[in-house]
Amino acid sequence: MPGKDLLLKTAGYFLQWRYPFRLLKIYEKWLAKRWPVPNLAQFSYTTTIREIRELYGQEKPVIWASFFFPSEFIHAASCKAFYPEIAGGLIAALGLAHYPFREADQNWFSRDLCSYHRLAVGMSLLRFFPRPAALLATTGICQGTVGFFKWLSLIWKVPCYIVDVPLQNSKDAVLYVARQLEEIASSLSRRLRITFAWEDVFHLSRKTGELIEELEAKRRKKEISFSPPTKNLEYLPYYYQFMGSETALAFFEKLLRESKGANKSSCAGKAEIIWLHLKPYFINQSLDSLLEEFGFEVLFEEFADVYKGEYNVERPFETLARKVLHSLRFMRADLRIKRTLAWLKGYGAQGVIHCNQWGCRQSQGMEFLLRRSLNAAGYPVLFLDGDHLDRNYFSLEQLKTRLQAFREMLG
Fold first, then answer.
1. Cα 312 versus chain centre, distance
2. Mind listing the pLDDT tens digit for each residue in 135-168?
3. Cα–Cα distance between 253 and 250 in angstroms, integer?
4. What stretches of 71-156 adopt beta strand conformation (E)?
5. Which family is annotated (predicted)?
6. How far apart are alpha carbons 325 and 169 in whole angstroms?
């Protein structure tokens, strides 16, 4: 429709107009007076407003990164981190995904592509995402990410740096990845005139990691549960995009403090599970309603498994290389199976739900290996087919039937 196309292009033009977004600072000051000690929900809201101002206001260079590129690299350069795959979940949750999907379709991007990538391409073609100064990506955990980011580079006409991730986690692999990160830092320093300062960023990541470990310990003891059951998957920006910033530290402090008031006395009567992959964000309430209706309790989520190793200021690139190689746990079937079994035992879970994503060959390719290994260990596993962002590839009735059958199996 020509009228709608014109409206979308006009909206994209204004979204790249930085100065009006900087006025949001007035609103932020008003919010700070209204909520001098914000609770978790108020903190998340004010963080969102500040992010919109800083990303679209372009007060600092905005650097986009793929899911497993360490955010500390960007924060250490005093740049704004933006993760288009994470932002895709928010766009879908807001019910706006059909606009970028339509734009991607009209520009001949295959519907067989991962919808996280297809949505980000559409948002970029519409100029709805904040303009990047550079793009950073790794080949772990998905080779599709490489082509996706190279396309983004052509759309936005900015440099794209790809880190090649080997399949082995060894000393040589750490040095190989570290050298690439150092070369990228050197290139960005010249291009964007930035410098890297690691001490504060690594300190914040270390402290945040300690809070995450405390949260996990409480979940293992059944002292904390999330409601709705997959709520923790909505906190991904704090696990990834904000790691190494004051924002992540403050968020997990509040999450721990407020969760203490929601202690769980017993899981009696519920089916306790480990959740693999992400979830459908566009039908979030419906999915969670079904999980609650059938009595499922999510004890841990695969994507909450973030790097908790050493942060060495003297060797920053080797530190971040180890964090990059941590993604092998998602990429290699043997490591993925091993850690899933460890979670099942450590959390005392009864089984696994793996929420497939349309076009995600990485996880679908190891489905049989996962099923065989988990079943051999005595754990049932349910693979839910569908899409996390595109409702055209998801059947709510099929989801209901399969969840009900799995719940009956678990007893």
1. 24
2. 999 998 788 899 999 999 999 999 999 999 999 9
3. 5
4. 80-82, 134-138
5. Belongs to the FldB/FldC dehydratase alpha/beta subunit family.
6. 6
